[in-house]
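Dear colleague,

As promised, here are the two records you asked about, laid out in our usual form so they can be pasted straight into your sheet.

NAME FIELD: protein one
SEQUENCE, THEN STRUCTURE:
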Amino acid sequence: MKKITYLLMIVFLYSCASTQQRYPSKIVPSEKNKKLAYLEYEMARNIILHKDYVRLPEAFKHLKNARVMLENDPKIYYMIALAYRMRNDKEKYVAYLNEAIKKDKNFFDAYNALGIYYYEKKEYKKALETFSKLIINPLYPHGDVAFFNRSRVYIKLKKLDKAENDVKSALMFSGNRNKTYWQNLIALEIEQKKYKQALSNVEKMALIDGDSDYTHYTKALCYAKLSMPEKAKKELKHIRDDNPEYYVLKKELLQSINAGKSHN
C-alpha cells in the first residue's frame, strides 16, 4: 500500500527583499541616480524571480549598475546571489548571501536561503543553526516558515518528535490556515503511529477548509490503522473516481481492508 509521504517543501521568501530599504553610503547618491538604480534593480529582480534564463546576463548588468549607487543595500547582494544560483555557481551564491547579511544582520531572506543551502548540502547542523537564528529573532515576520523549514531538517535527522513540534509551531504562527503545514503534521503523526492524534487533526483541517479526497482518504487510513474497517470504508466511499491519484489509493486500501490485513 502506498504510504503518505512528507511534503518536503522548502520555502523561499522574497517579500523582505522587496521591502527592506537601507541606503547608507560614503557618497550619498542624488535622488535621480537612486531612482535609476532602483529601476535597474527592479528590472533585474523581475528577470530573476521569473527564472528568465535567456535574459540572465541582462540581469547581471542591471545589478552591476545598481550596485554602484546602492553599494550598502543588502537587497542588491541578495539578488546577485539568486542570479548566481540560477547560474549554478554555488560558491558565489553563498558568498553573496553572506555579503547581504554583512550589510544587514537582520536581512532575513538571506538567512532563510542560507539555511536552505545547508539543508541541500546535507550540512544539517549548520541548517539548524541558521533557521534557529530566524526563529529566535523577534523582528522576523515569517516565523512559520522558519519553524517549517527547521522541521524538514529534523526529519532528515530522524528526530520526528522535534519535527512534529516545529510543524505545530508553524501552524500556530500561520493562524492554522496553511494546508501544507496541516498535511505535514498529519504525515508525521501517522509515521509515528499516532493514529488517533492524526485523525483528530484531519478533522480539524476539514472544519477549516472543508472535506476533500485527501481528508477522506487520510481519515480512512487512520480508521484502518485503528482496526475500524467499517468507518474506513465509509470514508472511502466519498472519494471521487475521477481523481486518479486518490482512486488508486482508495482501491489499494480497500483491498487491504477486505483482505483482513493488519494495518499496525
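NAME FIELD: protein two
SEQUENCE, THEN STRUCTURE:
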Amino acid sequence: MASFSLGALSENENFVSGVLQATRIAMQTHQKEKLDALRSALLNIALGRAPDEDLQAVFLSYVEVLTPTHIRLLKFFEAPSAVGANPLARIDFTTVTLGQLLEETYPELRGREEFWGLIMEDLTRRGLVDPVDTTVRYSDDNRVEPILNSMGSQFLAFIRTPPELGDEPPAPR
C-alpha cells in the first residue's frame, strides 16, 4: 500500500495548490463523479504522479467544467468493452457512426444528438479527443480510434484512483 508523509505534503507547494483548487471545485458540486475525480487527482499529486503544475491546473479546471457525461464518454473511448453489458458485440464496426455508437452504448443519449454533439465538440476543443468524422473505427487494442488522444489519456490517468489505493484512502505516515 502506498503512503506519504502528511508533514511533507503540507510543505509541497504543488500539493497545497492542488488542494486549494480542488476544495474550491468540490464546494461547488454534489456530483459524485466530480468528487471522486478530485479525490483521485489529489492522491496522484500526493504520490508524485501528477503532470506538471500548469497541466495539473488545467486538468483540475476540466473537472470543474466537464459534466459526468463528458467523463463517461472519455472513459468509454479509452476502453469501450469495459462499459456495461458491452453493446459493442452487436455493432458492425465497418459502418458504424459515432452517433450510433454512443446511442447504442448510452440509451439516455438516444435522440439527443445536439447534446452529445456539444459534448464531443467540447472534448475536441479542450484537446482531449481528436476530431471525428462520421465513421468510427475500432482497433484490436480495445480502443475506438482515432477519438481518444494522449492528452485525454493523461487526463483520465490524473483523475483515476491509483491502482494500489483502490477505494481505500492512503495511510498517512
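A couple of things worth noting about protein two: The longest strand covers residues 3-4. Residues 3-65 form one domain.

Best,
R.
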